[in-house]
Design brief:
single chain, about 170 residues, mainly alpha, two-stranded antiparallel sheet, elongated
């Protein structure tokens, strides 16, 4: 007999496990996934912009200060993943969290996990392109920073959504 989603969710709300995992395990899995997604994306994004910046810096080492913000900006998504993982421990009493609430924490962490992973990669590509702008005209750093900052918007929105979803989960 097939159960409806509502029946499964109702049963899970009163259960100590969901798909064999406790609420603690679901919540920690979500926190870890948010951190890993943001961290992986940041590492890849920083690598992209570093490849371009290293070529520029070989030709003109004095541009290091101008390149540094472009090198660092894809790393912010890793920070958002870390913030999400830490907030899981602040928002919820993990030793007493139900399986249902733990699963909701897991799903609430997914926006940061996926959006930060993808946006950090594309932000690295955007920052790499902006590096070429700075290589030719150092005084255009402000304009060059706007380009990867636009990509940053979606990482920030994912963090805001995750925090909002945390506030809607029964404690």
């Amino acid at each position: 007999m097939l159960e409806t989603f509502a029946q499964v969710a109702k049963a899970a709300a009163g259960s100590n496990t969901w798909a064999g995992l406790t609420g603690f395990q679901w919540a920690i899995f979500g926190a870890a996934l948010a951190f890993v997604g943001g961290g992986m994306g940041s590492a890849i994004g920083i690598t992209y912009v570093s490849n371009v910046a290293s070529g520029i810096l070989v030709e003109d080492p004095d541009k290091f200060g101008s390149m540094l913000p472009l090198l660092a900006i894809p790393g912010t998504q890793g920070i958002y993943g870390l913030i999400t993982a830490i907030l899981v421990t602040f928002f919820f009493n993990l030793s007493k969290i139900s399986a249902h609430s733990g699963m909701l924490v897991f799903f609430s962490c997914l926006p940061v996990a996926f959006v930060c992973c993808v946006s950090a990669i594309f932000q690295g590509l955007t920052a790499a392109s902006a590096s070429a702008m700075v290589a030719r005209r150092t005084e255009e750093l402000g304009k060059a920073m706007v380009l990867p900052a636009l990509v940053e918007t979606y990482a920030v929105l994912s963090l805001i959504l995750t925090i909002y979803l945390f506030t809607r989960i029964p404690k």
